[in-house]
Amino acid sequence: MSYKVTLIPGDGVGPEVASAARACLEATGVPFQWEIHSAGEGAIAEHGSPLPEVLLESIRHNRVAIKGPITTPIGKGIRSVNVGLRHALDLYACVRPCRLYPGVSSFHSKVDLLIVRENSEDLYAGIEYDDQTPEVRELIGWVKQHGGKTIRPDAAISLKPISAGASERIIRFAFEQAVKNGRKKVTAVHKANIMKFTDGLFLEVFRRVSSEYQGRVEAEDRLVDNLCMQLVQRPETFDVLVLPNLYGDIVSDLCAGLIGGLGMAPGANIGDGIAVFEPVHGSAPKYQGQNKVNPAATILSGVLMLRHLGEPEAADRLDRAVSEVIREGRRVTYDLKPKRDDPTSVGTREMAEAIIEKLKSGVVRANL
Ligand code: NAD
After folding, report:
1. Total domain count for the chain?
2. pLDDT tens column, 300-359
3. Which one of 223, 239, 258 terminates a domain?
């Protein structure tokens, strides 16, 4: 039986890293049937939408997808297709393991974190009012009436909804991940000293849910600014982090910086019985078409997908092949070389080929 998986190559460097991941996944010997769909600005001409219904239907039917990054224009243009996809399929949990592989240069000797980011609300809800519109004027008037706070008349406004229900769902998910993966501690990240109602609610729910896991999983919380400093200095003191959407986004990139950069950070967006795997990084447009960027983040997202599909042995083999190529440090992309302009660095395709050779030679070391 082959696995039917929706494949979204994305844009920018997306098609290059997606094709590398596809080749590596196929080289594991696990049979796949790919349903390939476009999304983003490139899909508008063909489908009239950056997030075509035919793509959503394919994922709803297959229940599993893997995607390359998709560009979101900054400050104008279409809204994020990546966020739209998570909302449309209610992929409420974003899971991002953050592990330092041997051979990657870092300030630290050990990093092994699991980031669990809430994916459905917060400032990412996309509820925004542009400046100088009748709606924003009305909202500014309403705020003045209810609480007396003055917002400048030339302001634009984004809303930050945080609900008890969505907080409970993600916090419970984080604790269950900790239990399932033998992790010891969950840290809730917030700014509840300032945002007493929204982040305050997130923290209150965390305290309630964490009490159910007492004796099994340790629980603590940190202000997001303090957490960032502590992560940079002592990442080994953290284990699972659970965060509202925006902090989760920012802290994910910080943690990628601890393990060799965005080229090394995989991810998964999980809903009830449905999952979309993708790297943390974006479409890196400046490198588009150059066969330059590191495919490991997308290949490792494929490793997460194999585990999700119930193929742990293939997942372990692919993970070890990636690890071995990185440890050897020869056939790796520029970002994994000691100097970024190292002339011996290889391209996206060649690094994937090195990983496939390791897989096929069967000499991947058992315990890295
Ligand atoms: P980015 O992650 O695309 O790239 C930032 C920098 O990180 C790159 O210039 C490069 O130096 C490095 N980098 C990224 N991926 C790498 C890789 N695989 N190997 C080596 N180095 C890598 O972030 P950005 O430039 O802020 O965003 C570009 C676009 O991507 C924007 O339109 C943004 O909205 C979008 N984006 C999409 C997603 C997604 O599809 N889920 C996620 C983040 C950003």
Report:
1. 3
2. 999 999 999 999 999 999 999 999 999 999 999 999 999 989 999 999 999 999 999 999
3. 258
Q: What positions carry a catalytic annotation?
A: 124, 191, 225, 249
Closest residue (by CA) to atom 42 of ligand 1? 282
52 CB less than 6 Å from ligand 1?
A: no
3-state DSSP call for residue 290?
A: coil
Write the residue with the smallest CA distance to atom 1 of ligand 1.
Answer: 282
In SS3 terms, 155-218 reads as CCEECCCCCHHHHHHHHHHHHHHHHHCCCCEEEEEECCCCCCCHHHHHHHHHHHHHHCCCCCCE
Q: Does residue 126 sit in the same domain as residue 236?
A: no
Residue whose structure tokens are 């019985």 = 273
- Decide: 286 in ligand 1 pocket, CB within 6 A: yes
Write the residue with the smallest CA distance to atom 4 of ligand 1. Answer: 284
Same domain? For 167 and 222 the reply is yes
281 Cα: distance to centroid of ligand 1 (angstroms)? 4
CA distance 359 to 356: 5
Rg from Cα positions in the chain: 21
- Tell me, what's the pLDDT at 147? 85
Closest CA to 69 of 351, 356, 293: 293
The segments of the chain whose pLDDT lies below 50 read 366-368
The predicted pLDDT at position 73 comes to: 85
pLDDT of residue 368: 37
* 272 C-beta neighbours (distance < 10 Å), count: 11
Extract the tokens encoding 124.
């990412």
Same domain, 175 and 47: no
> Among residues 239, 258, 277, which one ends one of the domains?
258
Q: Which residues constitute the domain of residue 249?
A: 107-117+163-258
In a domain, 100, yes or no: no
| Ligand 1 pocket: which of 70, 262, 280, 337 to mutate (most atoms within 8 A of CB) | 262
Give Cβ neighbours of residue 262 (< 8 Å, ≥ 6 apart).
253, 256, 279, 280, 281, 297
